[in-house]
Design a protein that fits this description.
Blueprint (H helix, E strand, L loop, with lengths): L13 H20 L4 H12 L2 H6 L10 H11 L6 H20 L4 H6 L4 H6 L10 H12 L6 H12 L3 H17 L5 H24 L9 H7 L2 H11 L25 H10 L4 H13 L6 H17 L7 H12 L7 H18 L10 H27 L5 H11 L5 E4 L35 H5 L5 E9 L23 H7 L2 E13 L2 E13 L2 H4 L1
Parallel strand pairs: 1-2
Antiparallel strand pairs: 2-4, 3-4
Length: 544
């Protein structure tokens, strides 16, 4: 069958051009209607309001991520790009990745034409503007460099180093690609050996810089980073490395507002997860790894299992198991790092890279046919992927992904220059639409993730100034989670932020008047619901 025949010579013909045009139309159309959410706004505000040095060497220590995406946004801001134009940039990045796949990948025609419309490539990375948008482009570029007739170890090291600076999980993917490139190259000529040693040094510099920028500051109040900095010795080392001498002196209960809150209780969803995560030991850990591998492929465990079994058999038959090294490294990263459904696009990119390297490694002169069983399984996976894309795109076109746009429009119409207070990280989604700091009680337009600047810990102080409007963000787990792929351990539609803010606002005479929510599509459901809730003072009649 010609559509599943191995590709002999890279080319970009009319069919590829038509596929790329359709891809551009789809991603561009959906991006126009996409409502950016808090994580997109946070990165934009950090880039807008900081110098490049402050961004890379100070602020990112509170974000827990390398800074290539933030540096790119910093450049966009200095070129006077608008917040909306950020999504035009991600569409362009997605188109560039799709072009590389169509023009240079070794995939058979049918696989090559369908892959760009998988949900990670057609929705998660070109429409949602986050650092993961860069992962497919850089991953595919590395595959092209590794498949070149002439070895280019320095180019591979440069591209892998840039990939490592997109996100912490991408550090693992980049490391897997770098190791594969080092061992897969067979040239033993002295000049090439010298270049390979230089490539190792170049990648090490980029990788260490990525780890440095993501190193947590000792005064961070963000989740696991705060727990890490709780150890005095660790905090001292972090202070030396990050240049921040401050430190959180207290360890409040998870997801609680301290000091002023009338009540303080852990989030139901998080408590349930902790209960299940510690049961089962090694068996549960193995199930988690399987869930991480299965989730980006299919919500049908049998189909995902068949995909990996057929892939491994196909690679083993052609002595290409080493090509799975980047995927294995990425799965390790997903296991050891905080991982959510938002990161699955990196795992899917790692899967495509694995397929790319496998096809490249098989000598085309051997005329080896594409394994028929794996062909059927892969096409079934791609059909479901395209169905996921259709669901996500249709939903985003007709429903809000996040409530920030509607909430910002409401405040613009009704606030009229009056004082606005903001609490909870999800309130930052509105701040990117304002030319300056939207909330009088927050020291920065972005969320600082610092104990020293935690506005949630000073609610009573802010409310004593009687703001006319208060914005409080909320977040709920959706009905789709990678943790439910096998063990079904995360309950749906449970609130993540039971922090006492709502009760505190009601105690001070505020009531919720408007709620603007959006759902984030995942598979055939939603991974999260995020809301911006507007509170206003109760009138005398309302109190009665």
């Amino acid at each position: 069958m010609k559509l599943l025949a191995a590709r002999r010579t890279p080319a970009f013909k009319r069919t590829e051009a038509a596929v790329l045009g359709l891809y551009l139309a789809l991603t561009g159309w959906v991006a126009i209607y996409h409502e950016p959410w808090t994580d997109e706004a946070q990165a934009w505000l950090l880039a807008r309001d900081n110098s490049l040095c402050a961004l890379l060497f100070r602020r990112l220590h509170y974000e827990g991520t390398p800074g290539l995406w933030h540096a790119l946004l910093w450049l966009f801001c200095r070129l006077h790009f608008s917040y909306a134009a950020m999504h035009a940039a991600t569409v362009f990045i997605g188109v560039a990745a799709a072009f590389l796949l169509l023009r240079r990948s070794p995939f058979p025609a049918l696989v090559r034409w369908l892959l760009p419309f998988s949900v990670a490539l057609a929705y998660q990375t070109p429409v949602i503007a986050r650092s993961y948008s860069l992962t497919p482009l850089l991953g595919f570029a590395i595959c092209v460099a590794l498949g070149a007739k002439k070895e280019r170890p320095l180019l591979v090291a440069l591209l892998a180093g840039l990939l490592a600076n997109t996100s912490l999980i991408a550090v693992f993917l980049a490391f897997g690609l770098a190791i594969f490139g080092f061992f897969a190259q067979r040239t033993e000529l002295p000049p090439q050996k010298k270049n390979r040693l230089a490539a190792v040094a170049l990648f090490a510099v980029f990788g260490l810089f990525a780890l440095y920028t993501a190193l947590p500051a000792p005064d961070t109040n963000e989740g696991q980073a705060q727990a890490l900095a709780a150890n005095p010795r660790v905090a001292a080392v972090l202070a030396q490395l990050t240049g921040s001498s401050a430190r959180c002196t207290a360890q409040p209960a998870a997801n609680c507002v301290t000091g002023n809150a009338p009540r303080c209780q852990p989030a139901t969803g998080n408590a349930t997860y902790r209960h299940h995560a510690h049961r089962g030991g090694a068996l549960a850990a193995l199930a988690h790894i399987a869930a991480l591998a299965f989730f980006p492929v299919s919500n049908l465990n049998l189909l995902a299992l068949a995909f990996y079994a057929a892939l491994i058999y196909w690679q083993w038959k052609h002595k290409a198991l080493i090509c799975s090294l980047p995927l294995l490294a990425t799965l390790i990263g997903a296991k050891v790092l905080p991982f959510s459904e938002h990161h699955t696009s990196v795992l899917w990119a790692a899967i495509i890279v694995t397929l790319w390297l496998t096809w490249q490694r098989i000598d085309s002169q051997e005329k080896i046919k594409f394994d028929s069983v794996f062909a059927v399984v892969l096409l079934a996976v791609l059909v479901q992927q395209i169905a996921w894309t259709a669901f996500a795109a249709t939903y985003d076109l007709h429903h809000p992904f996040d409530g920030s746009v509607e909430a910002a429009q409401y405040l613009e119409t009704n606030a009229g220059g009056r004082a606005i207070a903001g609490f909870n990280y999800h309130s930052i989604g509105l701040a990117a639409f304002a030319p300056r700091n939207l909330y009088f009680n927050q020291s920065t337009a972005y969320w600082p993730w610092s104990c020293a600047a935690d506005s949630d810990a000073r609610i009573a102080e802010a409310l004593s100034q009687h703001p006319q409007f208060v914005v409080a963000g909320e977040s709920y787990d959706g009905d789709v989670s990678w943790r439910n792929q096998i063990l079904k351990e995360k309950p749906a539609w449970t609130r993540n932020d039971e922090d006492g803010i709502a009760a505190m606002l009601e105690t001070h005479g505020y009531r919720p008047t408007h709620r603007f929510c959006g759902n984030q599509p995942a598979q055939f459901g939603f991974s999260e619901q995020s809301c911006e809730v507007i509170y206003e003072p109760q009138t005398t009649d309302q109190k009665q």
